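Good morning C.,

I know you're traveling, so I'll keep this short. The sequence:
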Amino acid sequence: MKRAALLLAAVVLVAAGCGSSTNAQPQDDPGAFAVKVVDQIVHNRYSDAWNDLHPTDQKVAPSAEYVQCERRSPVLAAPTATKVLSISSESVGLGDGSFVESKAVHLRLDFAGGFKLLHTVHVVAANGKWTWILPPTRYRDYRADKCPIDAGSTSPPSTS
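The tokens, ready to paste straight into the viewer:
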């Protein structure tokens, strides 16, 4: 009888876990989510953007700190259009060193004067919704309790 009860308990635990993963892939379009986040950031709506930041990143960049730091270097030129070019599945490293599956959303941002910028936003499922992640240099700075624009902060990678 004791064995049957343990077996039943194990079955219940396994069944309870099925389909309830906190990192289950959301049904929402990852491209539309990435465009929304870029729009929030380029229009300096950092509180809104923070709400969709991955929980791992939220821990190193609490809301008040993130908003205060980002407001010190506001975006001055917002794109006139943002277009999703493609979406692919990629493993991506979080700032804490763990790797997770992501959707790499490849965007083209169009600016006045014909300038175009290609940018990739990695969106990661967390708690049943899409979230975005900080670039590694920004994660390191927030983890070190520095605003990314402060003297001594991590330089972004060179593109040359």
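Safe travels,
E.
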